[in-house]
């Protein structure tokens, strides 16, 4: 009889621990999405030449957001996030470690400003963004003009990293 009571007591303790785990899991699952929604944005502040309004120049809001996230990640050392933002064909041909070797030095510098000078809709699926980046390298500030290219694939914008076979 005492042996049965010990077994029953142990089973009850296991049940209580299981119930506690379930309650904690449920609580965390309810709190985490709210925490993610209040996390700081991982984007850069964009500047526009001649005070042009962003909605008038971007093909859609999602591209502006992807562009801003991409350049934030590029100078924050978030290589994995940027790798998945590169166009799919590139991801098939270049490994993450190869990509890391190509972009790793950007995080050593600081992007101070990204000025959008012009956005060209090359086609419905291809956009070229002419921009002027102000970058701090050590104690110096450098300005770099670049044409940043983006392609729309299955409803999502992807960055086209400089490729000598794909010029606009």
Spans where pLDDT lies below 50 across 5 or more residues: 15-40
Shape: extended
Which percent range fits the helix content? 40-55%
Provide the structure class: alpha+beta
Biggest sheet details: 5 strands, mixed
- CATH level-1 class of the largest domain: Alpha Beta
Number of domains: 2
Full CATH superfamily name of the largest domain: NTF2-like, domain 1
Instruction: Based on the coordinates given, report the CATH architecture of the largest domain.
Output: Roll
- What would the average pLDDT be, to the nearest integer? 76
- The helix/strand series, from N terminus to C terminus, equals HEHHHHHEEEE
Using the CA coordinates, give the radius of gyration. Answer: 24 Å
Distance between the termini: 84 Å
Question: Do you know the CATH topology of the largest domain?
Answer: Nuclear Transport Factor 2, Chain: A
Structural overview:
By secondary structure, this protein is an alpha+beta fold. The chain has two domains: 39 residues; 115 residues, NTF2-like, domain 1 (Nuclear Transport Factor 2, Chain: A, Roll), CATH 3.10.450. Helices cover 46% and strands 27% of the residues. A five-stranded mixed β-sheet has the order 1-2-3-4-5. It is extended and about 90 Å long. About 15% of the residues have low confidence.
């Amino acid at each position: 009889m005492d042996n049965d009571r010990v077994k029953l007591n142990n089973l009850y303790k296991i049940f209580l621990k299981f119930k506690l785990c379930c309650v904690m899991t449920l609580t965390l699952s309810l709190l985490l999405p709210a925490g993610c929604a209040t996390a700081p944005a991982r984007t850069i502040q964009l500047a526009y030449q001649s005070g042009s309004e962003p909605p008038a120049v971007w093909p859609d809001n999602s591209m502006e957001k992807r562009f801003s996230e991409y350049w934030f990640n590029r100078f924050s050392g978030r290589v994995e996030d940027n790798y998945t933002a590169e166009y799919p064909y590139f991801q098939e041909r270049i490994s993450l470690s190869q990509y890391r070797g190509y972009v790793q030095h950007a995080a050593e510098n600081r992007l101070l400003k990204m000025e959008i000078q012009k956005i060209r809709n090359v086609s419905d699926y291809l956009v070229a963004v002419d921009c002027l980046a102000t970058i701090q390298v050590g104690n110096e500030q450098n300005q770099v003009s670049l044409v940043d290219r983006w392609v729309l694939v299955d409803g999502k914008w992807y960055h086209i990293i400089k490729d000598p076979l794909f010029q606009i």
